[in-house]
Specification:
By secondary structure, the chain is an alpha+beta fold. The protein contains 19 helices and 26 strands. Strands 6-7-8-9-17-13-12-11-15 form a nine-stranded antiparallel sheet. Strands 1, 2, 3, 4, 5, 10, 14 and 16 form an eight-stranded antiparallel sheet that branches.
Length: about 775
């Protein structure tokens, strides 16, 4: 999409040395098994104090490999911690969480059926040699900018001495920190970001040290209590003879006093009350209340195959991954893909940013759940990321939406992706037709945002922002939905046509009949040329008749080469297959039985193709009958681990020809939507067809989730070397987890199955093109 280092080492000291060497420059393992934040209620569509949830907590955390990983404070992308682990000295040597332990992730608060009610976690790490077990309970304080961590340590083969090992990455960078340590607190800061880690009991020893000699625990060997640069803070706990429990709070603030006071206040409130507030137990307002507000949740549970466990986790994940300063700012993932080899010396967001495409998927999924408020806040947020006169550095035409931006609207990537300009229009139309967006609000946003976007889809324009000085001529897009190529894209064109048709409805409602006619006529023109531009009849696969992933010119049969990307050599366009054409059916641009659509499916599904070009991979899971389908983004995709070495994507900032993009769970959902559309061509799908879709596509997405009920960006397809990760086929890789889009696609599939029709099909589009 965008351009498990749990290595089993014999010696914990070797791991610590490696971690020490990496700490100044990288982030943590990206395959999260938990992410969390407090539920905060809007006040008049915004996040501010004074509402039913009181003060607004702006802290997010993540969990991977059994340890606390990136923890954010402030804006959602502003990480302050890389990770916090526990090192344990035993009679037979030192062990460290991660390399020397196995882990299990569970939700702390579930209903009678085992469905999660809040994103608070119990993480259990077990020593591989059976010497100890560590249980951590992790959640935020919903009334403060702090994180609560309860640690219980059980010594199984004699006394053990545990030590907290905290690696700050203050101000979203892996260097430039200043820290200090005492038996009462571990502190760190950079700029205006401060943290204080305090416990209810003092540490036996504490240190703050610069990483040196490749030894992250060097500070415990001397009396160093302050450090600057790339630092590690350690706090030794009392010896544990059998079992002991310790409570800690990590407070954040704009200065040292505020961070320390915040942590102290959280500890004073105590574990039981903070957790109850987080959960929303009794009269308290928290996550239970949010789930109870989702009017469609009960019936969507009935469409699931796991009793609604993944559904409720998905609802939590979608809402967690929203900024708490900019209401409605929905990000792609609380992770940095392949973070353990991603440079952290300069501030970066990873996937903790706004892509209007992912944003649209999330807003539509939340609407499918019956959440009225968040999609409305999301729609009202969208002008923040639309290019216009207010956009810093913009000297060109506006109306389009930024490729990727910080939640405050700061441009990060400035490529033009026409689907990302169409989808805000589609979202607005959907909310209007649901009765959630008023006519008056629609008309206001038509002039302010939707008309400029629709006009750009018609006329394009001259871009002059950052590196981008291109002239855009729709429906040719500078970048398709995977952000890697320019051309005529079936998936992008589907969104553009749908966006223009519904823009016609909106323009008409706003009294702009001339524009309404222009939008609809342009959609007709684009639709009329879809097959000529994007369907080859002389392709290299099968009978030669199928949709191209992308065509760089007007001739779909000339086998022109695609551009080199992600370390992969250029191939003729007819040798790069993808299933993006299914979006034409989803939005209503083509019928499910359209000849070109039907002709393309066998090529996408051909598992006899060599792995370079192959897209579909079926999976079997232990203890589960049947096989379950998955698809890669496209053939010749290099956005993934190296098949020869097992190295992470882009490790050492190098693109390698062995890199391979793996299977994405979202495509299982997309295919499920297509099968539902096919089954409903003559009316509501029959029960047998719906059951097959549930048993195949819904079940597959549930099986792709990890033990924390998080759905990854990519799952391991079993192709090539896996020397560094020891993945199991169908298990998430070190790509982004949780991917919000993955959870959104699952939720939308359940809504579609429940309704008996595709949730994000657009009726006026279907009426116009696919009768």
């Amino acid at each position: 999409m965008r351009t498990l280092k749990s290595i089993a080492l014999a010696s914990a000291a070797v791991l610590i040395a490696g971690a020490a060497q990496a700490a100044p420059s990288t982030w943590a393992y990206s395959a999260k098994t938990g992410v969390g934040a407090s539920y905060e209620a809007y006040v008049d569509g915004a996040y501010k104090a004074g509402g039913k949830t009181g003060a607004v907590s702006k802290v997010w955390f993540s969990i991977a490999d059994g340890v606390l990983t990136e923890t954010m404070y402030g804006l959602i992308h502003e990480a302050q911690i890389k990770q916090m682990r526990i090192a344990v000295q035993t009679a037979t040597g030192l062990a460290i969480e991660g390399a020397d332990t196995t882990s299990k992730t569970e939700y702390l608060h579930v209903d009678a059926a085992g469905r999660p009610l809040a994103p608070a976690y119990k993480i259990t790490t077990t020593d591989k040699q059976g010497r100890f077990v560590i249980e951590k309970r992790i959640f935020t304080d919903p009334d403060r900018n702090s994180l609560f961590v309860r640690v219980t340590i059980k010594a199984l083969k004699g006394p053990v001495t545990p030590t907290l090992v905290l690696e700050p990455h203050m101000a979203n960078t892996g260097g430039g920190d200043a820290g200090s340590a005492s038996t009462t607190a571990l502190t760190a800061y950079e700029g205006k970001a401060f943290l204080s880690l305090k416990g209810t009991k003092p540490f036996a020893k504490a240190s703050a040290s610069v990483l040196k000699d490749n030894d992250a625990l060097a500070g415990l060997k001397d009396t160093t209590t302050s450090a600057k640069g790339a630092i590690v803070l350690t706090g030794q706990l009392p010896v544990v003879a059998k079992e002991a429990t310790f409570d800690f709070a990590i407070g954040f603030g704009p200065d040292a006093k505020a961070a320390d006071a915040t942590a102290a206040a959280t500890l004073k409130t105590g574990y039981t009350e903070v957790l109850a507030r987080f959960n929303g137990e009794g009269a308290r307002v928290g996550w239970e209340d949010y789930l109870a507000s989702l009017t469609e949740l009960p019936r969507l549970r009935e469409a699931s195959e796991d009793g609604g466990k993944l559904l409720q986790a998905s609802a939590l994940m979608l809402k967690v991954q929203e900024d708490r300063t900019h209401a409605g700012a929905l990000i792609a993932s609380l992770s940095n893909p392949w973070g353990d080899t991603v440079d952290a010396t300069q501030s970066s967001t990873g996937y903790k940013a706004v892509w209007p495409r992912d944003f649209y998927q999330c807003a539509m999924a939340l609407a499918a759940l019956g959440d009225k408020d968040t999609p409305l806040a999301a729609f009202h947020y969208l002008p923040t990321v639309q290019v216009g006169a207010k956009t810093s550095g913009n000297k060109g035409d506006g109306g389009w939406f930024l490729q990727k931006s910080h939640v405050d609207g700061t441009p990060e990537w400035v490529g033009v992706q026409l689907d990302q300009t169409a989808m805000p229009i589609m979202l607005g139309w959907k909310l209007w037709k649901l009765g959630w967006l008023s006519d008056a609000d629609l008309k206001t946003f038509y002039g302010r945002m939707l008309k400029p976007a629709a006009d750009f889809l018609v006329k394009g324009g001259k871009v002059d922002l950052g590196w981008n000085h291109s002239t855009i001529t729709p429906p040719f897009t500078q970048q398709e939905r995977w952000e890697e190529q320019g051309g005529y894209s079936p998936s992008t064109t589907a969104a553009v046509i749908a966006g223009l048709v519904v823009a016609g409805d909106i323009a008409e409602a706003a009294g702009d009949k001339a524009s309404a006619e222009t939008y609809r006529k342009t959609a007709d023109d684009y639709s009329g040329k879809v097959e000529a531009r994007m369907v080859t009849t002389k392709g290299s696969f099968g009978d030669g008749h199928y949709y191209l992933r992308l065509n760089s010119d007007q001739d779909a049969d000339n086998k022109s080469p695609v551009e080199e990307r992600n370390g992969q050599a250029a191939v003729p366009e007819d040798k790069m297959l993808d299933a993006g054409f299914l979006e034409l059916v989803r939005y209503g641009v083509r019928r499910a039985d359209d000849p070109a659509i039907v002709a393309s499916l066998p090529k996408i599904d051909d598992q006899a193709l060599e792995d370079l070009y192959r897209v579909r991979y079926d999976f079997k899971f232990p203890g589960v009958e049947g096989s379950f389908p998955g698809w890669r983004r496209y053939g010749v995709d290099g956005y993934g681990e190296d098949t020869k070495t097992g190295a992470n994507y882009g490790a050492d900032d190098q693109m390698r020809p062995g890199q391979r993009g793996r299977v994405w769970p979202i495509f299982t959902g997309e295919r499920g939507h297509y099968e539902l559309a096919l089954a409903g061509l003559s009316g509501k799908p029959d029960a047998a067809a719906v059951k097959k879709i549930r048993d195949t596509y819904v079940k597959a997405m549930e099986l792709f989730a990890n033990d924390g009920l998080l759905i990854p960006e990519q799952v391991w397809d079993g192709v090539g070397a896996d020397s560094q990760h020891a993945y199991v086929r169908g298990e998430g890789t070190d790509s982004a987890t949780p991917l919000a889009w993955s959870h959104a696609e699952y939720v939308k599939l359940l809504r579609s199955v429940s309704d008996g029709q595709v949730w994000d099909t657009y009726a006026p589009v279907k009426a116009r093109f696919s009768r």
